[in-house]
């Protein structure tokens, strides 16, 4: 059987340890092509570069002997360039994004470059998974989760995903034997409580720097946050149709104002 | 009765004609505060600035005599700064974003800074509306749609929206008398067919520039694209919960692999 073509990207940049771990797993399962940002692109959400040029350079130093490219654009740009410039007629069987350094559970999905890249792939008809480990540090331990990451990729390669669907996978930062398994769940209704640090730059000009804390009041046991707090890997099926179908009826009266 | 507090932002930047038209309508309905990007931020999606400082300056030249600020960040940054730095304890009754120069119908919502700003406001518990006119030109005619924009804002001020909900409103570029009314609809399942222009910069280095064409194969008559093609204003209720609830059941078997 021909080896499946696997596209790998991320938002922490091509040199991040997280993408290296993902590539190592992917290599065991298929032919890997990497198109990743040439610099960190965290928090870029679904941004695309439309008002300026994008650079794309082969870089086989980072992943020796593999087909890999670094891109000056956002994670979503990487997927678009991968599809239309790098791969062209070679259709990837799956797109993997990550492994992100830090959580993309709950509402984080909408800010996340990692997950937006996966969503862009799903728009292109490519089944996709965004992986995140709940450890923001550069030297996080990505080894423990590898068997789970591999199982999930194998499952999707075999079974596919609903059209337009992607998986948002968050992994607790625990040794392998302490991870209890995988839970399929919904996105918790949690949010960020923002705070802005206000300070002056060296020239005496005021600036703001975004910070904040994550706050979850959604205590049901079918959410990604619950799964993570209970030492499970959280697997959330996500999608790009943002229509609030429940609200369609209520709003109907707008048609007559 | 006290006048409602109305927060206005956009993604085309504080000097764009579209935000001026929206402010003119909003002024008739309440007390307006403007926090908008100091430069165009189209295609920024839900990007936030986390790895660098953000500037925020009062600018009362563009909107004389009004409380207005220009911000160096993304549209989502503008909403966060508006809420936490500018307004603080003053709770806006509504957030309006736009009027965007160009369509944000269908899948465009996920790339759009205009709609991401509205979505961020909805996350903060503020009812919000993103407006877009189907005319990309700088000197588009924003007068024709003003009566509809006003009616819709009034309706939301009076009736509110479901929690976490926002409206994605797209307006055909037609004279007032040719607009047939408003249709409440779902997001059409359409997409972009990307193309990249490949060229060399003045130094002989290759670059890519994203372009493409919008493609819709979703021909049902309950979509935003249908409404717009039939001279209606399309009103789509949207939300930030990206969970694909239908896929939860199919995926359940992942828990046992």
Give the topology.
The structure is a homodimer of 257-residue chains.
Chain A lengths: L4 E5 L7 H11 L3 E7 L18 E3 L8 E5 L3 H13 L6 E8 L11 H11 L4 E6 L12 H14 L5 E7 L10 E3 L6 E10 L5 E10 L8 H6 L3 E7 L7 H5 L6
Parallel strand pairs in A: 1-2, 1-5, 2-4, 5-6, 6-7, 8-11
Antiparallel strand pairs in A: 3-4, 7-11, 9-10
Helix pairs in contact in A: 1-4, 2-3
Question: Could you characterize what this model shows?
Answer:
2 copies of one chain form a homodimer. The radius of gyration of chain A is 19 Å and the shape is globular. In chain A, strands 3-4-2-1-5-6-7-11-8 form a 9-stranded mixed beta sheet, sandwiched between helices. A two-stranded antiparallel sheet of chain A has the order 9-10. Chain A has a single domain, classed as Survival protein SurE-like phosphatase/nucleotidase (Stationary-phase Survival Protein Sure Homolog, Chain: A). By secondary structure, chain A is an alpha/beta fold. Chains A and B meet through helix 2, helix 3, helix 4, strand 7 and strand 8 of A and helix 2, helix 3, helix 4, strand 7 and strand 8 of B.
């Amino acid at each position: 059987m021909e080896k499946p073509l696997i596209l790998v990207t991320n938002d922490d940049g091509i040199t991040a340890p997280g993408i290296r771990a993902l590539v190592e797993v992917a290599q065991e399962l298929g032919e890997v092509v990497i198109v990743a940002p040439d610099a960190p692109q965290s928090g870029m959400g679904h941004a695309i570069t439309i008002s300026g040029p994008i650079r794309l350079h082969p870089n086989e130093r980072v992943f020796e002997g593999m087909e890999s490219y670094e891109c000056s654009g956002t994670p979503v740009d990487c997927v678009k360039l991968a599809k239309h410039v790098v791969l062209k007629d070679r259709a990837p069987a799956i797109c993997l994004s990550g492994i992100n350094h830090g959580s993309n559970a709950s509402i984080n999905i909408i800010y996340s470059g990692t997950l937006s890249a996966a969503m862009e792939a799903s728009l292109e008809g490519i089944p996709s998974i965004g992986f995140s480990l709940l450890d923001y540090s550069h030297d996080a331990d990505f080894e423990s989760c590898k068997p789970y990451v591999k199982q999930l990729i194998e499952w999707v390669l075999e079974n596919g995903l609903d059209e337009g669907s992607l998986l948002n996978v968050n992994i607790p930062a625990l040794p392998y034997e302490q991870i209890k398994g995988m839970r399929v769940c919904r996105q918790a209704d949690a949010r960020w409580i923002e705070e802005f640090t206000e300070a002056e730059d060296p020239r005496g000009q005021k600036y703001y720097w975004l910070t904040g804390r994550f706050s979850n009041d959604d205590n049901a046991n079918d959410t990604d946050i619950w799964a993570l707090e209970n030492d499970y890997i959280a697997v959330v099926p996500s999608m790009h149709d943002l229509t609030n179908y429940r609200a369609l009826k209520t709003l109907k009266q707008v048609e007559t104002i």
